[in-house]
UniProtKB/TrEMBL annotation:
The lineage of its organism: Bacteria, Pseudomonadati, Pseudomonadota, Betaproteobacteria, Burkholderiales. The keyword Cytoplasm does not apply. Keywords: DNA-binding, Transcription, Transcription regulation. PANTHER family: GNTR-FAMILY TRANSCRIPTIONAL REGULATOR (PTHR44846:SF17), MANNOSYL-D-GLYCERATE TRANSPORT/METABOLISM SYSTEM REPRESSOR MNGR-RELATED (PTHR44846). GO terms for molecular function: DNA binding; DNA-binding transcription factor activity. GO terms for biological process: negative regulation of DNA-templated transcription. Pfam families: GntR, UTRA. This is GntR family transcriptional regulator.
Amino acid sequence: MKLPTKLHYADIARHLTEGIAAGQFPVGSLLPTEMELCDHYKTSRHTIRAALHELQQLGLVSRRKNVGTRVEAVRPTNEFRPTLSSIDDLVQFGSEHIRKVLSVEETTIRGALAKELTCDSGSKWLRISSLRIDANDRPPVGWTDVYIEPAYAEIGELIRKSPDTLISSMIEERYGRRIAQIRQEIRAVAVPENMAPLLQAEPNAPALKIIRWYQDAGGQVFEMSVSVHPSERFAVSMQLQRSNQ
């Protein structure tokens, strides 16, 4: 892996993850000390600690005072798993639903889409367009455009080979960039004419649009998704409780 000139803690986490996977740091061995890593990567102790925290969250290492950072596993063991209060827990697709990839291409986001996604106009992203389908020959549940950083382009081929694996999980496992927070917006829309034939829906029929922003521990967005679901095929259910005051 060629590291960028200006290092982000996620770059260091990814580099160390690859070193562990390649056997450079065998299970049971200790990683270099924080100060040694600072010297090696020419960065601050704060950045190194954030990178090591990511490895710890992935289950790759354990950290103990006066002992150091010990390698515990070759592959991430702590995948992002939705809880009852998470965004993904609101969406119950069921295990029978898979992703049917329609296209994977680099795109430049401009105009209305840039405003909707609250990203810089002219920014480049890798877009994965897909349908969510099941094995029972029913119409697709929805259409999803996922936008990830172009640096993750090799994920494109993996996506086709693993239609039942979350894209965010692939990014986490391959690059060590872990989801810390997901922001979501739900809007009422009409089924766009260009999507209607593949969705087997009437153009301009009622639908729900769900936009999600996936953020890392530093608050940076590394993945975005826009999903359109015909109204009769999708529902969002949640339960609200009065807080104790």
